[in-house]
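Deliverable D2.4 — example input (structure tokens):
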């Protein structure tokens, strides 16, 4: 374990993006969530249905949080209103809560020195009640690069309070785009980010196109479910579009030009599976006992009832 210390010791992982996860925290959280829907007595069919319900709940919760991040504005409480407003428009609400704590921490920082090295401004800061700990942060006007020795951005993906102090000292109203990690943005799942990979003919391209279509259709599903007339309009449009795409798909994969008459032909039918032969020696039917069974004869001799075992015929 000591030879592998670079893989688990915190001192070696300061510049690695862990986004707050520990070793087993993610899988344990998923297991605990799945246990709310499943039981030990469930069959395989019931287990699959429970997993579908879990996935549906995950997607629904994600859609609600995405809707809240895009269509709501949080209350501005810090003194850096311009920067805070830009942070709220860029990050999701979950990440914005953590970034806002870093903006509040700017008030506890004290400037020790400031010097200029060519086009880069270097700030030396210390924190209140910790005078022996000096942190250096820099900002380059020509490159727009903002860096800090605290390494919070490298580990969690969002700026630290030292970076926000430099933004305040340089009178910046917005964060530089270079320090905004795309995975924390409200438009992280926007299909425009994957436009260059849409033409990929491999399986990866199919997955990217599927994800892009799923992301774009969520808003349509939300609107179509609001009223009955909108729902009927959405269903008719989806059916017509699906029919046209099915014709094109069949013509592309089979080389036959399909029409409306033969769209339903050739659809696969799900039947019972073929029973496979069991492993091991085949079972042999038990043979009947050889010989004929003896019979009992019951009669009456005179005034006496008798029961005699007769020999086989």
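Example output (designed residues):
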């Amino acid at each position: 374990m000591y030879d592998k210390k670079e893989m688990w010791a915190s001192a070696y992982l300061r510049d690695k993006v862990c986004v707050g996860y520990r070793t087993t925290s993610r899988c344990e959280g998923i297991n605990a969530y799945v246990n709310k829907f499943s039981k030990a007595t469930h069959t395989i069919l019931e287990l699959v249905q429970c997993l579908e319900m879990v996935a549906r709940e995950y997607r629904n919760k994600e859609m609600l949080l995405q809707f809240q991040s895009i269509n709501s504005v949080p209350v501005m409480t810090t003194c850096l209103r311009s920067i805070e407003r830009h942070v709220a428009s860029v990050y999701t609400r979950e990440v914005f809560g953590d970034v806002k704590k870093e903006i509040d921490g700017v008030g506890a920082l004290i400037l020790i020195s400031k010097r200029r090295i060519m086009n880069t401004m270097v700030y030396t800061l210390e924190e209140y009640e910790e005078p022996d700990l000096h942190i250096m942060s820099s900002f380059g006007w020509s490159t727009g690069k903002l860096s800090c020795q605290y390494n919070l951005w490298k580990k969690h993906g969002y700026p630290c309070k030292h970076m926000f102090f430099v933004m305040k000292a340089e009178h910046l109203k917005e964060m530089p785009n270079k320090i905004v990690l795309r995975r924390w943005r409200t438009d992280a799942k926007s299909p425009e980010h994957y436009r260059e990979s849409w033409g990929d003919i491999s399986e990866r391209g199919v997955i990217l196109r599927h994800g892009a279509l799923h992301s774009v259709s969520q808003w349509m599903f939300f609107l179509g479910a609001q009223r009955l007339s909108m729902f009927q309009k959405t269903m008719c449009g989806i059916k017509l579009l699906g029919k046209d795409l099915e014709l094109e798909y069949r013509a592309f994969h089979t080389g036959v030009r399909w029409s409306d008459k033969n769209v339903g032909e050739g659809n696969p039918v799900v039947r019972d599976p073929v029973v496979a032969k069991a492993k091991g020696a085949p079972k042999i039917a038990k043979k009947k006992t050889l010989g004929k069974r003896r019979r009992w004869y019951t009669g009456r001799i005179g005034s006496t009832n008798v029961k005699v075992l007769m020999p086989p015929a």
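The chain is about 40% helix and 15% strand.
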